[in-house]
Specification:
This protein has 129 residues and is of the alpha/beta class. It has five helices and five strands; from the N terminus they run βαβαβαβαβα. It has a five-stranded parallel beta sheet with strand order 2-1-3-4-5, sandwiched between helices. Helix 1 crosses helix 5. The longest helix is centred in the N-terminal third of the chain and has 14 residues. The N and C termini lie close together (6 Å).
């Protein structure tokens, strides 16, 4: 999935969705700090994410386990063509397979901050497709 925007624009709008406000804020701040070409906003409610997602976004980064709906369902119900990354602490092969089946990349959350550069690269890749 993706918007098909010209990669030379190199400025991507990203929506982070995580029911934990601290995690959502942290992910948004790290992504913007590590990659100045990412403009990141966040929400803690998947239903709000569905309302906010429009053609101006290039990628959604979502947790898997959240109240009301999981991240795979969020990606499935998205009405716009955006890249997607399932970014979760859930370490089950079925989750990675489910993410792939809806066109989302999968990345497991880790406790250190070193992996945020990998996440930023994955976001750019998903946004550009």
């Amino acid at each position: 999935m993706g918007t098909g925007r010209d990669v030379s624009e190199r400025r991507y709008r990203v929506l982070v969705v995580d029911d934990d406000p601290m995690v959502a804020t942290l992910v948004a701040e790290y992504l913007e700090h590590l990659d100045g070409d990412l403009s990141v906003t966040y929400t803690t409610a998947p239903t709000t994410a569905l309302e906010r997602l429009d053609d101006s976004f290039d990628c959604v980064v979502t947790d898997y386990e959240m109240p009301v709906m999981d991240g795979v369902t969020l990606v499935e119900q998205t009405d716009v063509d955006v890249g997607a990354v399932l970014y979760t602490a859930t370490d089950e092969s079925g989750v990675a397979t489910a993410a792939k089946s809806v066109g989302a990349a999968y990345m497991r959350k880790r406790s250190n901050t070193d992996h945020y550069a990998d996440l930023a690269e994955l976001v750019r890749k998903q946004a550009a497709t």
